[in-house]
C-alpha cells in the first residue's frame, strides 16, 4: 500500500500513548438521576477517550462522530478552521515549533490521527465506526482510516442528502450532500464467528406493498421477477409453452435465466406467473414469506427517509427554544437512528466523541423508547464547556424527561493520575488506582464487586493486589502478606516498597511492583 504522510505525522502517530491519563469526576448537579450507564463527559475528547479506557476498552459497539470539516469557517459555534487558540497550543506542544507553519490540512490530520487510534481501541472486535465528513477532508480521512483500521475493513461510503433547496448563488455546483464513511474494526468473513455484521433495516409498508397474491397462492403475497437474462447461456435456450398453448422463445441476444429441468421444477411448484390470461412471458414468483426479514441498506440516504440539516435545526430549536448558539450542520436524529438500527442491538454502547448538540444521545433514547428491551447506552464527549452544559446535557435531559426514562451521569476531566514529577496524584482514590492498574495489566475491566481488601481481581491465573492508602505507608511486609490468598496462583502486588526477602516472594509466587515507578503508562 502506498505510504501516506504529512508534515507532523511522525509526532502524532504514537501520540495516543503520550496523552496523560486523567480521572473522571462526576458532577452530580448536572447529572440526571442517581446512577446510569449513560455518560456525558465535558472536556478535550483526546484526554476523555484516554480516561475512558479502563472502563470501556473493547466494549463500544458503534461509534458515530461528526468532526470539524475544516472548511475554514470561523463564524459559527464550532471553529471549523484549524486556527483556534486551543488547537494552536496543542499543535505547538505536540508537533513543535514547525507546527506553526503547518498547512490547515496537515493540522487537521494531526488532530484526527491520535483520536481515531483511541477510538479504535474502544471498539469491540465486532464494532463499527461511522464518520460524517464533506469534500474538504474526505480523501485525507480515507487515507488515515486505511492507515489505522486497514483498507480491508472499509465498509461503505454513504451519501447523505443534507439539503432540499439548491443554492442558486453557488459558484460551480450547489453542494447538496455529505458523506458517512464506515469502517469495521474487523469485518466479518464467511464462516467466521467474530467481526462486524450489519443488521438488516426493518421492512417498510412501502416495500411490502409491492407484494400481492392475484392467484391466491397458499404461500401468501409475492412479487415477480424476470425469467429472461440479457445474455446468452446455452442452458437457457429452449422453448416454453404457456398454459394457453402459446409458444415462447427467448428473444435474440437473451436466454432463460434457469436451465430447462429447473424450469419444469418451478412450473410444478407453481413458482411461475404467466399473467391472468395464462399467455404472458413467464416470470418468477418471489414470496414475501421467503425473503429476508429486513432490507439490505443502500449507500444513498435521502432526506425524506433520514431528514436533513433544516429538519435538524428546527428540532433542536423546538427542544431548546431559547438557545442563542447556532450550529451550521446539525444532524437529524432520524439519521443517527438509522445508523444505530444497522449497527447495534440490545444493550450495546454507542459513543460520540464530537457530540456537539447531543443528537446521538437523543437518538439513543428515542430508539430505546421505540424498541422493546432495547436498552442501548450512550457516551457523549463535548469539548466546549458552554456547549456541553447549556446544549448537550440540557437537550438530552429534556428529551429523557419527555420520554419518561434515560438517566445519565455528567462527568468532567479531573486531575492527571501522574503528577509532573512522576508521582501519583494525592487525589486519586483506591478504586480509581485499582481500576487503572488492573486495566494496564490485563486490558480488562475490573469487577468492583470482587475487590476485597488489597485484592483487586484475577485474570489468566494471576491475582492482582494493591496496597494504596492516601495516608500512611503502603508496604508489602509480613502483615500485608497475611492479607494475600493462601494458594499457589501467581500474585502481582503493587505497593510503595517491599520488606520481604526474595526467598519469601518466590515461596508465595509474588511479583512485587513499586508505585509509582512500575505503574505502566497506557
UniProtKB/TrEMBL annotation:
Keyword S-adenosyl-L-methionine belongs to the record: yes
GO molecular function, one term: DNA binding
Keywords from the UniProt entry: Methyltransferase, S-adenosyl-L-methionine, Transferase
Segments crossing the lipid bilayer: none
GO BP of this protein: methylation
A Pfam family it matches: N6_N4_Mtase
InterPro entries (alphabetical): DNA_methylase_N4/N6, DNA_methylase_N6_adenine_CS, N4/N6-MTase_EcoPI_Mod-like, SAM-dependent_MTases_sf
Gene3D superfamilies: Vaccinia Virus protein VP39
DNA methylase N-4/N-6 domain ranges (all copies): 60-391
Protein family: Belongs to the N(4)/N(6)-methyltransferase family.
Identification of the protein by name: DNA methylase N-4/N-6 domain-containing protein
Amino acid at each position: 500500500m502506498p505510504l501516506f504522510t504529512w508534515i507532523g505525522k511522525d509526532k502524532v502517530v504514537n501520540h495516543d500513548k503520550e496523552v496523560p491519563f486523567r480521572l473522571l469526576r462526576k458532577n452530580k448537579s448536572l447529572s440526571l438521576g442517581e446512577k446510569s450507564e449513560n455518560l456525558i463527559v465535558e472536556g478535550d475528547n483526546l484526554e476523555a477517550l484516554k480516561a475512558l479506557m479502563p472502563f470501556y476498552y473493547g466494549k463500544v459497539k458503534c461509534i458515530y462522530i461528526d468532526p470539524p470539516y475544516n472548511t475554514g469557517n470561523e463564524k459559527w459555534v464550532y471553529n471549523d478552521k484549524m486556527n483556534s487558540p486551543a488547537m494552536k497550543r496543542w499543535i505547538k506542544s505536540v508537533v513543535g515549533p514547525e507546527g506553526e507553519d503547518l498547512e490547515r490540512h496537515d493540522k487537521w490530520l494531526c488532530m484526527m490521527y491520535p483520536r481515531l487510534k483511541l477510538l479504535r481501541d474502544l471498539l469491540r472486535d465486532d464494532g463499527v465506526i461511522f464518520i460524517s465528513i464533506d469534500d474538504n477532508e474526505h480523501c485525507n480521512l480515507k487515507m488515515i482510516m486505511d492507515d489505522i483500521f486497514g483498507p480491508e475493513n472499509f465498509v461503505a461510503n454513504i451519501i447523505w442528502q443534507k439539503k432540499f433547496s439548491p443554492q442558486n448563488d453557488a459558484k460551480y455546483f450547489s453542494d447538496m450532500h455529505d458523506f458517512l464513511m464506515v469502517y469495521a474494526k474487523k469485518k466479518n468473513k464467511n464462516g467466521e464467528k467474530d467481526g462486524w455484521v450489519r443488521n438488516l433495516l426493518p421492512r417498510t409498508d412501502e416495500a411490502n406493498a409491492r407484494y400481492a397474491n392475484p392467484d391466491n397462492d397458499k404461500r401468501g403475497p409475492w412479487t415477480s421477477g424476470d425469467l429472461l437474462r440479457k445474455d446468452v447461456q446455452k442452458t437457457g435456450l429452449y422453448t416454453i409453452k404457456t398454459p394457453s398453448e402459446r409458444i415462447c422463445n427467448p428473444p435474440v441476444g437473451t436466454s432463460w435465466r434457469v436451465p430447462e429441468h429447473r424450469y419444469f421444477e418451478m412450473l410444478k411448484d407453481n413458482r411461475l406467473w404467466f399473467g391472468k390470461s395464462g399467455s404472458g412471458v413467464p416470470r418468477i414468483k418471489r414470496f414475501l414469506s421467503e425473503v429476508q426479514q429486513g432490507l439490505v441498506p443502500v449507500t444513498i440516504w435521502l432526506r425524506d427517509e433520514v431528514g436533513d440539516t433544516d429538519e435538524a435545526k428546527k428540532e433542536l430549536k423546538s427542544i431548546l427554544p431559547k438557545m442563542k448558539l447556532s450550529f451550521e450542520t446539525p444532524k437529524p436524529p432520524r439519521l443517527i437512528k438509522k445508523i444505530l438500527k444497522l449497527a447495534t442491538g440490545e444493550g450495546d454502547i454507542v459513543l460520540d466523541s464530537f457530540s456537539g448538540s447531543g443528537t446521538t444521545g437523543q437518538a439513543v433514547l428515542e430508539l430505546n423508547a421505540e424498541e422493546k428491551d432495547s436498552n442501548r447506552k450512550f457516551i457523549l464527549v463535548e469539548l466546549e464547556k458552554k456547549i456541553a452544559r447549556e446544549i448537550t446535557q440540557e437537550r438530552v435531559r429534556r428529551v429523557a424527561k419527555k420520554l419518561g426514562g434515560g438517566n445519565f451521569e455528567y462527568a468532567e476531566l479531573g486531575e492527571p493520575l501522574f503528577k509532573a514529577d512522576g508521582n501519583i496524584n494525592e487525589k486519586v482514590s483506591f478504586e480509581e488506582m485499582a481500576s487503572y492498574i488492573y486495566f494496564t495489566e490485563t486490558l480488562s475491566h475490573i469487577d468492583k464487586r470482587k475487590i476485597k481488601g488489597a485484592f483487586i481481581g484475577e485474570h489468566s491465573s494471576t491475582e492482582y493486589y494493591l496496597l494504596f492508602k492516601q495516608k500512611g505507608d503502603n508496604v508489602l511486609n509480613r502483615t500485608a502478606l497475611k492479607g494475600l490468598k493462601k494458594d499457589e496462583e501467581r500474585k502481582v502486588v503493587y505497593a510503595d516498597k517491599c520488606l520481604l526477602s526474595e526467598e519469601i516472594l518466590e515461596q508465595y509466587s509474588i511479583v512485587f511492583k513499586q508505585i509509582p515507578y512500575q505503574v505502566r503508562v497506557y
